[in-house]
């Protein structure tokens, strides 16, 4: 074993925008991406290609530094990096000199053969959030994790790793915050003082560079803004995908899908999306339809469309080895599949049997894959569900000798799913022209938000998973992924009726609201649990549709700032200890104004913590003072949700599908406060990219309690709102007050009472 510690600096030089420090073992390359984002890349392959799947930005600033006998100092307006020369160690401070994070003086960075690890000082009160799709507590302190994208079916609330890799975390101690992104795609490890007598945090990877981006902004929100500036933000999702989605493995025939869709309409349960899981294909061959069970895909989808439903179909990466199957023949002929080093195509078994795997790291392969979606888009599919892309093969152990281009599997496994989602997104966006595709992927790496939504894979119908799901969504949110779903009801097993009811209540407040279940499970549609429960679930789904104007604006905010839709309380109340307590760690803000407290199905009361400020129970209007814990009622029809004082929640009437026109009234619910508040309202056609050319409708809605007014600023953008009238509804006042409706004009509107 070749063990090497990063030793003393031997030379310091500036090369264009890089500061390069050489030691006997390695080179450290330091670049300034922005005043609050500094990259440190400690590499033993300085001549190697500098590629990233995640990062889409170039350094903004030239590097400037001071040098003394002991130190090199890099300063920006937001960060100070002090580098001790002997041995080479890195320490980040605020401009005022407060420590953010530094190497452990003893161990710093070192190597065992190709394995690289970094040891960092741990502060006594330090907490950590992030790392994306990871089980465990909101606060990652005293836990350790591995990144190795895995088909984790039957995972438990303790299983690690799951399907996705986000090597990004936020550290919090004293009054400071910082972010750390290890951009290394190899199998990687993070240990937050878990296994070392609480002496340090350590992180590293099996191979590659200690290549990290350090974020120095002093709020979690601004760190997320910087992180999503660096790795990209999502674009506006199609509005229909924010409606209720009904899935199952599988609705076996076109007729069954149509029957389920029409039952939604019969029962007056709003819904927008039906899914086809793997059984719509012929022999699980991607880009085919089963002739017998889905004989006329276009006629089938036309009927769905006539009921105002969209269809999402699944695709897996594995291409069946079968002569005469177009994707197989073309892929073999053009050499598009992963190979062994001798050039033979790798074969692994999945649903179709023996399969080859497209090399999504090649642009021509991505284009080929993307173009093949015409088999789905021509009959009318608009959503594309990417499964099994960890990549999964039976028994999980894809040999290390499998090559994707010049890279072996262990180097690129964690980004394979992301590249598949990228190929799917690019391809379907091209084919659909001006329409927004909806892409959903199971495996992901940092930056996947640019292409796709994710869901959290095969959960189980238990209350523990219900709570875990909320934490996973929140954790993905602080890792750049705002558009996230969990299988409502739990994928494996059968939920009790109570659990199904509760989980649907939480579904309202999940960015993607999709009901899905495993093969041979009991049917899960809202009407499967008796009249009374149907009533409850219908009401929840109706609430989701009422909230769509608010939710759509929350997504807009994500596209602009990277702030997620579901926000762990650690984002806005970072330094409040109570938000990390196990009792309260599942709570989150849904958009700017609503606080959601998930509760299991067997508890009818709940302990909740309301952070500073005033809050109102959404269902009753009851007022609560913040900074306190409460025991509140949590009956099955009313999981605790609170509106923040000053919350502005634009709503609409209940519609059965986002394609329904609705009554044209935008209700602006305003929750009483002594302080003024503002909400950024955003609307567009929900379906096309015209917003990129300015066809959107955006205005600030401001509540000013002192003057008893709600003001809508004049509209920015060229889109005409679909709401012709506006009605302000005042809540948390002596009584609920509905103010007279006004026309939704584009000029400033002042509503007084
Ligand atoms: O080996 O397509 O997570 O959502 O229903 C299982 C069948 C493959 C796993 C996905 C699940 C999906 C299922 N898939």
- CATH fold node name of the largest domain: TIM Barrel
Structural class by sheet pairing and helices: alpha+beta
Radius of gyration: 26 Å
Supply the number of helical segments.
Answer: 12
The largest pleated sheet is described as: 8 strands, antiparallel
Helix content: 10-25%
Low-confidence parts: none
Q: Averaging pLDDT over every residue, what do you get?
A: 98
Domain Glycosyl hydrolase family 31 C-terminal: 562-649
Protein name: Alpha-glucosidase
Domain Glycoside hydrolase family 31 TIM barrel: 235-554
GO molecular function, one term: alpha-1,4-glucosidase activity
Give an overview of the whole structure.
- With about 750 residues, the chain is of the alpha+beta class.
- It folds into four domains: about 5-230, glycosyl hydrolase (family 31) (Immunoglobulin-like, Sandwich); about 245-320 and about 360-560, TIM Barrel (Alpha-Beta Barrel), CATH 3.20.20; about 565-645, Immunoglobulin-like (Sandwich), CATH 2.60.40.1180; about 665-750, Sandwich (Immunoglobulin-like), CATH 2.60.40.
- Helices cover about 20% and strands about 30% of the residues.
- It contains twelve helices and 51 strands.
- The strands form eleven sheets. Strands 2-3-4-5-20-17-16-13 form an eight-stranded antiparallel β-sheet. The protein has an eight-stranded parallel β-barrel with strand order 21-22-23-27-30-32-33-34, surrounded by four helices. A six-stranded antiparallel β-sheet has the order 1-11-12-19-18-14, with no helix packed on it.
- A hairpin with a 3-residue loop joins strand 36 and strand 37 (about 595).
- Helix 2 (about 255-265) packs parallel to helix 3, helix 5 packs across helix 7 and helix 9 runs parallel beside helix 10 (about 530-545).
- The longest helix has 23 residues, at about 410-430.
- It is globular, with a radius of gyration of 26 Å.
- The mean pLDDT is about 100.
- The structure holds ligand MIG.
- Ligand MIG binds next to loops.
């Amino acid at each position: 074993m070749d063990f090497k510690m990063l030793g003393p600096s031997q030379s310091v030089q500036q090369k264009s925008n890089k500061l390069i420090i050489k030691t006997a073992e390695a080179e450290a390359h330091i670049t300034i991406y922005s005043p609050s984002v500094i990259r440190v890349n400690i590499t033993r392959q300085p001549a190697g290609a500098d590629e990233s799947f995640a990062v889409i930005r170039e350094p903004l600033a030239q590097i400037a530094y001071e040098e003394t006998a002991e130190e090199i100092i890099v300063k920006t307006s937001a960060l100070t990096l002090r580098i001790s020369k002997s041995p080479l160690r890195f320490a980040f401070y605020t401009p005022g000199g407060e420590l953010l994070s530094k190497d452990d003086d003893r161990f710093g960075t070192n190597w065992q053969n190709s394995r690289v690890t970094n040891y960092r000082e741990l502060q006594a009160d330090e907490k950590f959030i992030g790392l994306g799709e990871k089980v465990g507590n909101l606060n990652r302190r005293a836990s350790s994790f591995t990144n190795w994208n895995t088909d984790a079916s039957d995972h438990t609330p303790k299983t690690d790793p799951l399907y996705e890799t986000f090597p990004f975390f936020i550290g919090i101690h004293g009054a400071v915050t910082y972010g750390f992104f290890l951009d290394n795609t190899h199998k990687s490890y993070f240990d937050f003082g878990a296994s070392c007598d609480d002496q340090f945090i350590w992180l590293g990877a099996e191979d590659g560079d200690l290549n990290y981006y350090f974020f120095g902004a002093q709020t979690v929100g601004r760190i997320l803004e910087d992180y999503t500036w660096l790795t990209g933000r999502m674009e506006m999702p199609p509005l229909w995908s924010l409606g209720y989605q009904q899935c199952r493995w599988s609705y076996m025939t076109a007729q069954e899908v149509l029957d389920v869709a029409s039952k939604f309409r019969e029962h007056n349960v709003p819904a927008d999306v039906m899914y086809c899981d793997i059984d719509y294909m012929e022999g699980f061959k991607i880009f085919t339809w089963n002739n017998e069970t889905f004989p006329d895909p276009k006629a089938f989808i036309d009927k769905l469309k006539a009921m105002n439903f969209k269809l999402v179909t699944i695709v897996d990466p594995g291409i069946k080895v079968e002569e005469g199957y177009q994707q197989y023949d073309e892929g073999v002929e053009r050499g598009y599949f992963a190979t062994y080093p001798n050039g033979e195509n790798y074969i692994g078994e999945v649903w179709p049997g023996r399969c080859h795997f497209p090399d999504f790291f090649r642009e021509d392969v991505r284009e080929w894959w993307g173009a093949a979606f015409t088999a789905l888009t021509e009959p009318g599919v608009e959503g594309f569900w990417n499964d099994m892309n960890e990549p999964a093969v039976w028994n999980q152990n894809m040999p290390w000798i499998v090559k994707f281009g010049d890279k072996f599997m262990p180097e690129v496994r964690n980004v394979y799913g992301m590249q598949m989602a990228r190929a799917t997104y690019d391809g379907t966006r091209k084919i659909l022209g001006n329409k927004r595709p909806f892409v959903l992927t199971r495996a992901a790496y940092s930056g996947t938000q640019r292409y796709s939504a994710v869901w959290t894979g095969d959960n189980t119908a238990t209350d523990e998973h219900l709570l875990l799901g909320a934490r996973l969504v929140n954790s993905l949110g602080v890792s750049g992924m705002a558009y996230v779903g969990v299988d409502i009801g739990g994928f494996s097993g059968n939920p009790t009726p109570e659990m199904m009811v509760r989980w649907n209540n939480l579904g309202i407040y999940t960015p993607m609201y999709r009901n899905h279940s495993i093969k041979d499970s009991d049917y899960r549609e809202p009407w499967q649990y008796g009249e009374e429960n149907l009533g409850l679930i219908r009401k929840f789904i109706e609430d989701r549709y009422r909230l769509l104007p608010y939710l759509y604006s929350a997504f807009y905010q994500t596209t602009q700032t990277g702030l997620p839709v579901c926000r762990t309380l650690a984002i806005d109340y970072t330094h409040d200890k109570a938000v990390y307590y196990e009792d309260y760690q599942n709570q989150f803000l849904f958009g700017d104004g609503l606080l959601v407290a998930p509760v299991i199905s067997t508890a009818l009361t709940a302990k909740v913590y309301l952070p500073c400020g005033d809050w109102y129970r959404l269902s009753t209007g009851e007022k609560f003072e913040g900074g306190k814990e409460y025991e509140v009622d949590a009956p099955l029809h009313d999981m605790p949700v609170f509106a923040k004082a000053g919350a502005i929640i634009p709503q609409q009437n209940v519609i059965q599908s986002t394609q329904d026109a609705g009554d044209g009234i935008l209700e602006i619910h305003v929750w009483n406060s002594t302080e003024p508040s503002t909400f950024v309202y955003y609307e567009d056609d929900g379906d096309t990219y015209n917003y990129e050319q300015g066809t959107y409708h955006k205005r600030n809605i401001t509540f000013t309690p002192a003057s008893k007014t709600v003001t809508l600023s004049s509209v920015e953008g060229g889109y005409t709102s679909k709401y012709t009238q506006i009605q302000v509804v005042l809540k948390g006042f002596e009584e609920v007050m509905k103010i007279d409706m006004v026309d939704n004009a584009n000029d400033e509107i002042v509503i007084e009472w």
